Amino acid sequence: MGFESSALVRDRRRVLSLSTAAFTLLFAVWLMLGVLAVPMKAELGLTSVQFTWLTAIAVLSGSLLRLPFGVWTDRYGGRAMMTGILLFSAIPCFLLSRATTFGEAMACAVVYGLAGNSFSIGIAWNAAWFPRENQGAALGTFGAGNVGASVTKLFGPALMALIPAGGALGGVIPGGYRAIPVLYAVLLIAMALLAWFASPRSDRRPGRARSWASQLVPLRELRVWRFGLYYVLVFGAYVALSLWLPSYYTRVYDLQLSFAALLTAFFIFPASLLRPLGGYLSDRFGGRSVTLVVFVAMTATSLFLCVPAGSLPLGGFFALTLFLGVAMGVGKASVYKYVPEYYPKDVGLVGGLVGTPGALGGFLLPLAFGAVEATSGRPESCFYVLAFLGVGCLGWLLRVVQTRAGVTGLASPEIAVGGE
Question: How does DSSP classify residue 216?
């Protein structure tokens, strides 16, 4: 029995470490055009509209299929699904390095953008292996792979400068920005081989014996969609600000793009790396309690950031966005703690559904930022949108908590563990 327990612990650790590494790489691929699209615009002669769509389309395609990817993972296993998405993403990623027109680049971005759905795969895969009392920490650790958003920002410019315009190895590795997709394609294939051969051969598939109809039952519940709205605030806004902040820094504070990207990376780090802390706190104090604190902190910080652009010194603005990133990092884990609490048999489906509006928020919120700024003429108006969203989520959460407290009493065990 002791041997079985030890083997099980090792298998869980292997699943968690491999899925987190794969997700980090896939997340880097998913958002790589946040940096690469700048030189691509000049080389391919893109218009401003084409440039906007090119940077956003991968986010969209990595959002729409999160629900089915979660269901498929429950049915076919995380080992097969993660290996498959890694291998599949390598093809359009490599082809992007050969794109010579806007249409070709868009087609590649749409297809490799499916890498964003790997989040649903990892959530379902880890939930199948970890017991309920440890799922918050496990899912939070896996979700820290969001830090992949900073990889291209940190290393992309240096690699583009390092490889000569004519390429390397006789042109096998192209020069400039085209080298990055080639490198990612190689890493995706290597990671796929590692995920397949190093993960437990006997995978867990909690949905394989269930009918499709039974797996879709949670879709009827308003609670699931509410969790999705919460995730728009903690994750969708994170993706949106990751894309928006470099431009904000350059326009408002007149910074060089390289320094603006560095400051944005410091926002990304806590918003990603503190997910394990958020998972631990959610296991300890309950997802509801932690989420409530996160929403208060995010709403208050967003309101502070609504002051006229440039009125805050650069250090003050940076500190506030850093605090916003801390809250997002904790909140991304606390919101997902709800999923196994309420739907232990449907983590793949519900996790995919909750992730869908959150990821779509990463596509829609920058559009909202731009529309509100165009109407108001105020660069800080992006934080108007964020504050409005924060007030809405906080108000809904408080209303539900007060309703539950009126029915069950504040000392209810369900309230204590984070139920709504």
Answer: T
Which string of b and e fits 392-408 if b means at least 16 CB within 10 Å? Answer: ebbeebeebbeebeeee
CATH classification code of 215-420? 1.20.1250.20
- The answer to whether 363 and 244 have CB atoms below 8 angstroms apart is no
Distances in Å between the Cα of 245 and the Cα atoms of 3, 19, 255, 317, 341 are 51, 29, 11, 11, 34
Residue 203's φ and ψ, nearest 5 degrees, are -85, 165
Q: pLDDT of 277-319, one tens digit each?
A: 898 898 888 889 999 999 999 999 999 999 998 899 999 999 9
Q: Is there a shared CATH topology between the 1-199 domain and the 215-420 domain?
A: yes
Q: Name the token pair of 368.
A: 């909202």
The Cβ-side half-sphere exposure at 148, using a 13 Å CA radius, reads 24
Residue 175, by phi and psi: left (phi above 0), alpha (psi -120 to 50) or beta? beta
DSSP for 39-52, please give it.
HHHHHHT--HHHHH
d(CA 198, CA 165): 38
User: Can you give the C-alpha Rg of the chain in angstroms?
Assistant: 21
Give 407's pLDDT tier (boundaries 50, 70, 90): low
Tokens coding 209 = 């014996």
Topology classification of domain 1-199: Growth Hormone; Chain: A; (1.20.1250)
418: helix, strand or coil: coil
b/e burial code for range 352-375 (CB count within 10 A of at least 16 → b): bbbbbbbbbbbbbbbebbeebbee
Q: What is the pLDDT of residues 237-271, one digit of tens each?
A: 988 898 788 888 988 999 887 788 889 888 988 88
Domain ranges of the chain: 1-199, 215-420
Considering the entire predicted model, what is its pTM?
0.78
Q: Are 140 and 278 in contact, with CB atoms under 8 Å apart?
A: yes
d(CA 139, CA 191): 20
Task: Give the pLDDT confidence of 157-200 residue by residue, as tens digits.
Answer: 777 777 766 666 666 677 788 889 999 999 999 999 999 999 99
Conformational region of residue 205, where left means phi above 0, alpha means psi within -120 to 50, and beta covers everything else: beta
Q: Is the dihedral of CA 410, 414, 358, 328 positive or negative?
A: positive
Q: How many helices (H) and strands (E) does the chain have?
A: 20, 0
